[in-house]
Amino acid sequence: MYSIFRSLVLTLSAYLVIVLFMDINNELKRFLFLQSGIPAAISLAVFAERYEYKLAEITGIVIITSILSFIGLILLFFISEIAF
Fold first, then answer.
1. Domain limits at 12?
2. pLDDT, tens digit, for every residue of 24-72?
């Protein structure tokens, strides 16, 4: 559930910030938009293990966001073609 929320909210908020507050060229807008679809970093799981904090949940988030990114990044690419 957290992974889907992260993917949707991060992408939507990145789009809104790019459109409303950034006066940059379209190529850079597309890059930043696609960057919002990158999966959660493995370093989160490393820190969770080190500090013994919700290791199973955080590892699950990393795995699910990695799997979803295969589909999500393709969709974001096509959306960025249309949006920018």
1. 2-83
2. 999 999 999 998 888 878 788 888 889 989 999 888 888 888 888 888 8
Q: Look at residue 83 and tell me whether its pLDDT is greater than 90.
A: no
- The total of structural domains in the chain comes to 1
Here the tokens at position 32 are 């930043």
Please, how many CA atoms are within 13 Å of residue 53, restricted to the half-sphere of its CB?
A: 7
**38 membership: H or E segment, kind and range:** none
What residues have CB less than 8 Å from 30, skipping those under 6 apart? 80, 84
Q: Are 6 and 61 in contact (CB under 8 A)?
A: yes
